[in-house]
Amino acid sequence: MTQKARRYSRKREAIRAVLNGAHCHPSAEWIYTQLKTELPDISLATVYRNLGEMKQNGEIRSVAFFDGKERFDGDVSRHSHFICDCCGRIDDFDCVKHDGELDSLAQESFNGRIDFHTLVFHGVCHDCLLKHS
What residue ranges define each of the domains in the chain, with the CATH number in brackets? Predict the structure, then answer.
């Protein structure tokens, strides 16, 4: 697969910096809000377009949809996530090894090719448990 050459874009680099510096798995709207002061001429459509291109090029990945909003991760290494079904918080969940063993096990029962897997745990985060107890 060839990646078309892209010119340097200050807005794209700002979007990437916000995503990579976030301590959450943000939506396009969250990224847009963070950038609006620094780049007053940026549009939400620009953020969506650039996130789509970065996702397509494998530079970022989509983790989940929560409340109709796609959430992104700048860390494309193989790792699991925990999603709180109450507040939508998404955390990296690194206690599960991604060593290929599960891929090999699944491959034994699948008549095709498995390249990798993603693993997402759902439940209620500690903060939500405290609020609702």
Answer: 1-73 (1.10.10.10), 77-133 (3.30.1490.190)
